[in-house]
Amino acid sequence: MSAMTAASTADDLTTAPATGRVPARRRPGHTTVALHGDLDTAAAPALREHLLRMLRPSGRLLILDLGEVPSCDEAGLAVLVGVQRRAAGLGIIVRIGAPNRQLTELLHLTGLDRVLVVQTAPGARAASTA
User: Fold this and answer.
1) Helix, strand, coil % (nearest 5) of the chain?
2) What is the DSSP letter of 72?
C-alpha cells in the first residue's frame, strides 16, 4: 500500500479521502501542494480526486511540488496528465516542481516533459543526461 500524501507548511488544510489531512499552501492567484511518497497505483485514485477538487480554489496556477516523491508509475503519470488537462479546460496552469532525477528522466522518456510544465532544479536536466 502506498503512503502518498500531500503536505505544506501553510495554514490552509483540506481533507482528501483515504489520505487524511492534506495541507495546501494558498497564495493570491496560486496554490502549492507538496506531495510526499510514491505516486503509484495505490495512491492515484484519492490523489486524483483531491487535486481535481483543488483546481477551482487554486487561482490561475496550481503548483505540484514533487520534491519528496521518490517514484512514480503509469498511474501516477496518468494523474498528472489528467489534472493538467482538466486545469487547462478551466484556464488554470499546472506546474510540476522539483521532480527528482528518476521522475525527470521518466517525464523525458515518455515525452510528458513536452506536455506538462516542468520546473527542475538548475543542473538537474544536465545531470540526468550526462
Assistant:
1) 40, 30, 30
2) B
